[in-house]
Amino acid sequence: FMQASWDVEEVQAEGIQYLASFVEDKTAFPHLLTCTEVITLAMKVHTNSLDLQVEGCTLLLEILSQALEQGVMMALDESVASCLLHTVRKHSENEEFLSMLCTLLMMVSASEVAAENLKKVGIIPDLLSVLRRFLHNDQICFSCCGVLWSLAVSEDNADQAVLASAVPVTSAVLQEHLQNGVIAESACSALWALALQGCLADSDYEPTAALLLDALRMNPERTRLVQNGCLALASLVRLSETAALAILLDSKGSGTELIKHQYHLHSHEPRVAEALCLLMKEMVQYDEVMLNMRSQKMEKLLSEIKFQFPFS
């Protein structure tokens, strides 16, 4: 019915509404999964209709939510990724709709195939543009950082320059939302992925390290943030002694004291201990840094960790 009349907006709207009526029916779920391309194409053909965009996006969110709950990874193809990008561009000023659309993109990008397809169609510059415009919007910042993380960790990263352009924007998100643990965690994860891919310039190491330390200080209770923040710092230190010195000489307090504090807060979390050990392992490759760590009695902390996790 929808495919026979792509150009008729009313047909597409009625089709989407009818499909939406099956969302609560669990037996209909496998069939709804096959409708994602039809829904996104209807959205692309009728981008001027905000009502249709909202209804289509809402339905896709419902389908994807159910898919994730059931452990089904939806590998949306390049044509669907292209449709979603088209929608982002057409409604780049509509904050409320973009908030919903960015949530959808984050869910879609959980699939590595979908993440690659989003990258292929060139979505990163558009995401960064949305972030710059709506830096104050919690949901947009959280979702876009989630998408950036997925795109940065996926296998094919041929266009380093495009990814590198995400560093200052992601840092701006973290700076803006340091006290919001959920967003700070998402931004720390994105910075970790970007650091792993070698996207930071020499001039980024020191300010990024200071920013990550601020995130750890302001959100000490968030296990995942502490873990990913430390992994991001380890990636920076691996690349630059400047980052290691920035941790030791941070103007807001000794980084080594912060490491001790984080371990004692999360002493029963093996993932945090592992991230902290990795950070220290990277730091001791620099003689000056190692001497400082010795003077701070970091060997005592390492012995504690070894005692706490003897079989890890």
Class from helix and strand fractions: mainly alpha
**Average of pLDDT:** 91
**Ends distance:** 58 Å
Radius of gyration: 22 Å
Question: Into which percent range does the helicity of residues fall?
Answer: over 70%
Count of helical regions: 19
Which blocks of ≥5 consecutive residues have pLDDT under 50? none
SSE topology string: HHHHHHHHHHHHHHHHHHH
What global shape is seen?
A: elongated
Main beta sheet strand tally, sense and closure: none
Structure description:
The protein is an all-alpha fold and 312 residues long. It has a domain at 200-311. It has helices at residues 9-20, 29-33, 36-45, 50-69, 78-90, 95-108, 112-120, 124-133, 138-153, 160-164, 166-176, 181-196, 205-218, 223-239, 241-248, 255-265, 270-283, 287-295, 298-308. Helix 3 (36-45) runs parallel beside helix 5. The longest helix is centred in the first third of the chain and has 20 residues, at 50-69. The radius of gyration is 22 Å and the shape is elongated.
Question: What topology emerges from the helices and strands here?
Answer:
Blueprint: H1 9-20, H2 29-33, H3 36-45, H4 50-69, H5 78-90, H6 95-108, H7 112-120, H8 124-133, H9 138-153, H10 160-164, H11 166-176, H12 181-196, H13 205-218, H14 223-239, H15 241-248, H16 255-265, H17 270-283, H18 287-295, H19 298-308
Helix pairs in contact: 1-4, 3-4, 3-5, 4-6, 5-7, 6-9, 8-9, 9-12, 11-12, 12-14, 13-14, 13-15, 14-15, 14-17
